[in-house]
Amino acid sequence: MRSCIFFILVFSCVITSAQTYEIGAFVGGANNIGDVGRTNFILPSNVAFGGLFKWNKSKRYAWRASIMYGKFNADDSKSNITSRQQRDFKVENSILEGSVGLEFNFVEYNLHKLGPAFTPYLYTGLTYFRYDFNYFDAGQLIDFNQKDGSIAIPMTVGFKYRISQLFILGAEIGARYTFTDNLDASNPEGSNVENFRFGNIFSDDWYVFSGFTLTYTFGRKLCTDCFE
Q1: Is 209 helix (H, G, I), strand (E, B) or coil?
Q2: pTM of this prediction?
Q3: CB 134, CB 101: distance < 8 Å
Q4: Which of 26, 115, 125, 136 has the fewest CB atoms in 10 Å of its CB?
Q5: Dihedral (C-alpha) 126, 39, 202, 188: value to the nearest 10 degrees?
Q6: pLDDT (tens digit per residue) in 43-84
């Protein structure tokens, strides 16, 4: 009888113990913060999407990796700055990034228990991204048809809520501080294009991905921990 009860408890533990890993998708929009277009910090001008993976190492933090793609449109005519409206530059750029880092939960987020789980979180780490290299010549956007690369520091705030035992829904806003000033074609580097610089050449560009995540959880915790 005792062995039967023990077997039932162990079997229940295997069935109900929650997952450790998450894999899923991000869907939302992207915008830039630079020398062309609007100056709003959060105002998507085009689409962004990607995939992400999380390893929930503890209740307080998770290691995270992601690959994201986004596009933004910077349009001076939509700016609230008069000088930009008069200049009337327009530029579109695409960004492909890979990012790794740490996601910190404000509230203990225990996926190894049944029931709802909710927490706000912060994410940061290191990002490498590729973007289109362009510049303006006499008001015309010159497309080199080539890519350039740089690194960025992601600063993301969001929240996540477990909608079932297997799926987690989240929303986040992630600003990336880059180490380039040419996302908007305002500060091209190179001896042949340095004369085409404009704007604040001492301030690097930002880009922002904001949207929703949906992840699937898997990888069960060891049953020896289920009776804690």
Answers
A1: strand
A2: 0.85
A3: no
A4: 115
A5: 80
A6: 999 999 999 999 999 999 999 999 999 999 999 999 999 999
